[in-house]
Amino acid sequence: MPDIAAHRWNVSEKACRLHADALVWDNHAGFGPEPSADLEILEAWRDAGVDYLSVNVGYDVIGWQDTVKNIGAFLTWLETHADRFVLVRTADDIPAAKQASKLAIGFDLEGMNALDGEAYMVSLYYRLGVRQMLFAYNLNNLAGGGCHDTDQGLTPFGRRVIEEMNRVGMLVDCSHTGYRTTMEVLEAMQSAGAPAIFSHSNPKALHKHGRNILDEQIRACAATGGVVGINGIGLFLRDRQAGTPALVDCISYVADLVGPQHVGIGLDWTPESLNSITEADPRFWPAHEGYGQGGPMRLADPQQLPQITDALLDRGWREADIRRLLGENFLRVARQVWK
Ligand SMILES: [Zn+2]
């Protein structure tokens, strides 16, 4: 357990103790995947009591060669900072890392352009530490439809990739993906008897945005046994300043809809400004979806995670359900899926 007294989380003592003791899982970091990224930034998550973080190593905006280089750079960094960080292989590595006061890291891919049209690339990425992958990053690709595109549905290639992901044990993620494609993916996963997730997506019922998801999608995800991770980007929240109450509203909404065993956290935090990322390519981040528009906006940062614990205690959540939300739900899914 981390040294609680050393933390200045500015929450109640009860919340502090619970948060430090609970397994805390953030299912997506938002900083830009490039070999030059300074991974000292990961200390921000350790400092907030996070035990597992999924780090993005590639998305559809970049080529597969760049993704492989990112993995090489990130692996090297983690290997040379093994006193504080560990790349996970199995789900059991995560409680072990917590015990050793290390932050456990897994990699994720945002979009299947990283496969370069070959399902056999799934196995390669899995061996390199990628533990989850989503279908299409905002725009359509070979595998399926993106959430900011005219959704073409899940393609035969996308179906082939699902089979391969289920075979090797890579978690199937539906964030950033178009509605029709997600419903076809979730149906296929239910038939396969395996859970699928939305790693970082918020309920559309609370804030209408193309990146957010309908109740129907949340229900279909829960029906597979999966988890919806709540996102901390102001653009996808009722509150552009990403205050903790807006995040807790999303958490409570999903818990009320499908049960507290199907909600988690995928904060998507980066210290960079979102505009500096999104204005680089307006095809992926169209202005009509609000990217780069509407004045100041912030992203919820990892220091708000202990505040979420505190706020849920205030709202009368049972400790057992808070522990599920903070990490046990995603751990359950990882135990089922990762091999
Ligand atoms: Zn994302």
Descriptive terms for the model:
single chain; seven-stranded parallel sheet; two-stranded parallel ribbon; 12 helices; binds zinc ion; 339 residues; alpha/beta
Label the overall shape: globular
Q: Which residues form runs of ≥5 with pLDDT under 50?
A: none
Give the number of helices: 12
Spatial separation of the terminal alpha carbons: 27 Å
Structural class: alpha/beta
Order of helices and strands: HEHEHEHEHEHEHEHEHEHHH
- Cofactors and ligands: zinc ion
Strand composition percent: 5-15%
Rounded to the nearest angstrom, the radius of gyration is 18 Å
Range of helix content: 25-40%
What is the mean predicted local confidence, pLDDT? 96
Quaternary structure of the protein: single chain
Report the biggest beta sheet as strand number plus sense, adding barrel if it closes. Answer: 7 strands, parallel
The count of β-strands is: 9
